[in-house]
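Listing S7. Sequence submitted for prediction.
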Amino acid sequence: MTSIDPSRRQLLRVTGAALAGGAVAGCSAAPGESSDTADGGGGGGDDGESSESTGTATSAGDGGSSGEWTQTSTVEMTDQLLYEPERIQVSAGTTVTFENVGNVGHTVTAYGDGIPDGATYFASGGFESQQAAKDGYSDGQEGNVPAGESYEHTFETTGTYEYYCIPHELNGMSGFVKVV
């Protein structure tokens, strides 16, 4: 992390990711393969390195979202509790599709303080605030995107957006959209 004074959310994300990583370390690797290479080296890690350079741009100083940005309008939600790719870059007016490619349900929920000033709040389920999305999920899993389904949002305002999965936030399932 590049921040000297990490927020509670960052602390929870790092702690959850460390716990989740420790719990599954080595479980997903094929025989003779390290767990670092089982997913092709991408893994949604926060090391700023990628085995692919096509379609990426490096950026730093975006509120803790430094790293490589993939130019795409599709994000996959996986059973490994990741958004893939974790950081995307799109042009203003682009509709981004969040596809659940696994068997576990996920949400796409913007952090209320993680979107640009003047931007429209977004969350699967059509909620107008982070608290409403959390309450809706708690009251019957509203906003859940089941396996094989998707959620779309059109990003109009430039800036960097941070979002997460309500049931998997403690596992570090979060992502970023940079709109240019």
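Caption to Listing S7: primary sequence and predicted structure tokens for the chain studied. Residues 8-24 form the longest helix (17 residues). The helical segments are 8-24, 130-138.
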